[in-house]
Amino acid sequence: MGRTFTRVPLANLPVPASNLPLDSGQPLGGRPHHPALESAAGRRVTLVRLATGDAGLLRVLDRAGRVVGRNIPLLIQGESGVGKELLAQACHNSGPRADGPFVALNCAAIPESLIEAELFGYVGGAFTGARREGAVGRIQQADGGTLFLDEIGDMSLSMQARLLRVLQERCVVPVGAREAVPVDIALVSATHRMLNESVKNGLFREDLYYRINGLTVHLPPLRVRTDIRVIVGQLVAAECAGQPCDGVSVSDEVMRFFEAYAWPGNIRQLQNVLRVALALLDDDERVILPQHLPEEIFDAEAVPVFVTPRAGGEPRRMLSAPSRPRGRPPLGLDESLIQQALAEHGGNVSAAARALGIARNTLYRKLGRNF
Ligand SMILES: Nc1ncnc2c1ncn2[C@@H]1O[C@H](COP(=O)(O)OP(=O)(O)OP(=O)(O)O)[C@@H](O)[C@H]1O
Ligand SMILES: [Mg+2]
Fold first, then answer.
1. What is the reported pLDDT for 343?
2. Ligand 1 neighbours (beta carbon < 6 A)
């Protein structure tokens, strides 16, 4: 690898109060990077960059950072959209293999008939339809780097058996080849399933479970994280970099709705909500307001898809939602209220919207008109 790598626990690092997009390539919070991670930083996501101020997350990052580069397989668990793949990449970029390949394999998406060829590769003419020059399998592609096995909990039992052999022997035999090819890979796996339950139910091999699970970390769902404001800042900055919306901010009111919402789709859902809100801004609007949000954000009772076992803290939906903007009716407006406002303003939609405290476009939407 030709590069030295010394690990210092993340817990010893100052927590950056960063508002930078993840790929800005600048030190977080204006502070120098942790030297061991800095070398791998560049414009890529690293463990340090993921530390946005939530104590539970910081513990996860610290534990993950301790096994990076030590030949200990890491298993990342967490709900959909919490950032499992991003964490896997951060681990790779933060360790001694950062200059090597990071190969992600979605175990749920490979058809049974293609597993062998996809994982192990094949030599030319190995089977009908094979490329003449053969193909290098995904595992071999990860040689010298990290193999990320995504959705490992959805892997078929026959694929589990094949993978187990590779992990035991640390070599692959391409389809049609005589010789085994040694592979040097760091292994990171992720799943939204509770794998120990799958083992109990006979859906996941116990021997493979212990092979992939040197250390398990649980990424916290967004609703228990305390750093949502920092994440929002990062996402908006990343969405708007070099775009006309550069410099757009998020109102405090919106932030309080975000803090009260349960986010069943976690950071991916937040990213989508912000993307849509930015698209709804008029040219002269520089602040994201409640009227730019989809209605479900105001539903503090939204039920998460599932609650991660051992997730620290109360789900956010249990906390009290912010009161609605003073003097403003709820956005799930009663039809009669709308009609009354329109009648009072002689059918003038802009004036009625002002009176109702909502954007003109929102009122048009509620009236079912194009705008
Ligand atoms: N800390 C973060 N800051 C900014 N964006 C993030 C962060 N974590 C995740 N994201 C973004 O959220 C989205 C979901 O992240 P990712 O794909 O890593 O989640 P996942 O847990 O693997 O989801 P799934 O279970 O659905 O595969 C991605 O677009 C990712 O870039
Ligand atoms: Mg994923």
1. 73
2. 22, 50, 78, 80-86, 192, 231, 234-235, 267-268, 271
Of ligand 1's listed atoms, the one at least distance from the Cα of 231 is 3
Can you tell me the distance from the alpha carbon of 362 to that of 359, in angstroms, rounded to the nearest whole number?
5
Q: Report residue 276 as tokens.
A: 């849509």
8 A C-beta contact, residue 65 and residue 38:
no
> Which residue, by CA, sits nearest to atom 10 of ligand 1?
83
Which CATH number characterizes residue 294's domain?
1.10.8.60
What does each C-alpha distance from 125 to 2, 3, 20, 173 come to in angstroms?
38, 40, 50, 15
Q: Which residue has the tokens 């906390």?
A: 319
Verify that 34 and 123 share a domain, yes or no.
Answer: yes
CA neighbours within 13 Å on the CB side: how many for 89?
14
* pLDDT per position as a tens digit, 302-355: 444 433 333 343 444 333 344 443 333 334 456 667 777 777 767 777 777 776
pLDDT of 104 reads 96
Q: Is the pLDDT of residue 88 over 70?
A: yes
Look at residues 161, 195, 218 and tell me which one is the last residue of a structural domain: 218
Asked whether residue 126 falls in the same domain as residue 24, the answer is yes
Give the total number of structural domains in the chain.
Answer: 3
Residue nearest atom 19 in ligand 1 by C-alpha distance: 83
pTM: 0.75
